[in-house]
């Protein structure tokens, strides 16, 4: 025993100080005004590497090998920084922090891939922090983004919000990049961001940064219209159990086509738990479930003319499905005349012009299931090998039912998406690998499915003068012979032909819908089977230790798209299609003129295996501090976008603009080669159908699609005035080349029979992406003002305007934005005794504007809207809880963000929050 004790003493005295002298500093940090715990506050040793954060109860513990006395640096945005001298390890420190204005203190990373003050960013960037989310009147952070300067959104449904900047606004924007914890959040097959489907849960958002405009030089292809970078909470920093329960009600006084829609509940439940097990290991788990009766798209405007369902036999409503099937009934009238020449006085006047009639469509309400639900879960493990090296494993899974708008409405039923990451990172470098897999589930494609339902219960024409159209013609002649007016005769004819038509929601209707939507497109149904995957590996190194005279950051990226749709979206009948991308980038930055002028430039090389030529893009910027906290910025960015995988492979669903019973995927370079049978522009086909003059038919000239690019210039000025006011103003101008837009074309698959356009033969409509020949320009300007009014009152206002000129009128270009936006916000983060009360209000105003849906679904004017959201909250400090009462669109005046999308009413809600404030 004595020998063991002696050996222990010898080891103690001869071991390094860093091993034998481990002191423990512990204490708690509170808000000096409210006396509540201050969580996630940084506690670091001055002139040292050791550090930690306060937990959800304000407590902290910090081990150190340094000798006493030592100084702690205490800091957090929203508090005045503080230094504390530690004299004894046995002392339990009680630290009180003074609240401070957050204006001008925000830092961002995404603008230059390095930490910098938001004010000094070289490009326009908007930010949402976790504290902003806590005080927001909106139901979720995706709704909050609508109020940011320069941001446009399209809301397809509860749970599917598409975000863009600089005016290019559409559902599923393939030119906007969404990055979550370093991972591209796009759907592997469709190439557009998945919105909130597998993004961060409400409780796990640390911050969100939105870059306006071109960002390809930093984040690669598809960054033409902006990039959103989302960062989750670090479990070492944000610990404890947090719960958020929101119960609400929507559809108050709601109507659909004049019929009342019953009020229904809104549920949103979120849970987060994080634990720092020790100084090396921490983990977190997140779950969120949202359920509600969705808003229903009910635009009944006639796409075929000025009439309505009662006055126009060829009526095809924007949100009526199945009525895209139409035909000229003149051949049936001629057959009736041949069978009975005595009908000449009735029929011959009708034959003077074409008489197009559409099948009866089904409205969305009662057709698509509007029970929206989203579930997502996330888990993350972090291990610190040493203070500078950390390993991360994470997995995120999302599933649910939501509706998305494109060339028709898509009900995404039981879709599943998973994203999994492994990362190793240090102060100056990281290596990251992740994969994304998707399962499209039992998606219902509204338009084609309804057309096939119509054909299933009664074919349009069976080839022997039987079917819906011959019956319609018979009913029309009978009614006219009885003395009915043309309008009444057409209504009587439709009633006759519709006999036996299954009603929405009936057992027969549901059977037909489920059967058709459950049969793959390749087998004659409308089900697409997207099982695509994305694999990505990347690395970045910051040469700060090796190169002192300037900042140098370099990185590489490898990506593989494994496209697997079983020949329903892509020409992948035999095996998945692999598309690879390779890229490398470097960024150089330097401060000169006593650090007043910051210069930076970056270059990126990208290669996509679907295209022969690589793309090289660049960015250059300068930021000059003309006075303290006053910055002028200028940037030039060259950005590009490879066409999406679907655009590149030119696959599209059969438009079925006749009464075709088809529905297979028609591929430009697949079964029906357009090189052999070039299509005609849909506009000229419609003229031919009206006039019968074949000379008006115009061929569509199609060339292989190429990447598009933009050269963008921006000049801006940002200033912090008296620590109470932030002012930011900017203007930009962009020049686009090989601009990608869409056109609707038509042909008869496998033939060149133009007669099919006007008689009972089948023809198909395609939506083709192509490059416009001329140069397109976009320009705009914006300004924002934030004022700290004192006593925790804060007000914000922003104004922005985006414009497009020199557009190709033959293209649908997805530039859907009003001439200007105005957003206002006013709130107080704490008033009353111990500042337990708070409130926030926001107003978003947009004038009416033209909105065109790609794919030919709809075109029209979105009415002006003024949307007010508001909430008031009360803290239960001892219970570490809070209660919020609020409403979105509090006036309940329904509005829409795009043609063919739903009208959005109010949601009135109450929220209970635990361990969040």
TrEMBL record:
Residues 118-227 form the TonB-dependent receptor plug domain. The keyword Metal-binding does not apply. PROSITE patterns: TONB_DEPENDENT_REC_3. Keywords: Cell outer membrane, Membrane, Receptor, Signal, Transmembrane, Transmembrane beta strand, Transport. It is a multi-pass membrane protein. InterPro entries: Beta-barrel_TonB_sf (IPR036942), CarboxyPept-like_regulatory (IPR008969), Plug_dom (IPR012910), Plug_dom_sf (IPR037066), TonB-dep_rcpt-like (IPR039426). Residues 1-21 form the signal peptide. It is found in: Cell outer membrane. Pfam families: CarbopepD_reg_2, Plug. Belongs to the TonB-dependent receptor family. This is TonB-dependent receptor plug domain-containing protein. It comes from Pedobacter gandavensis.
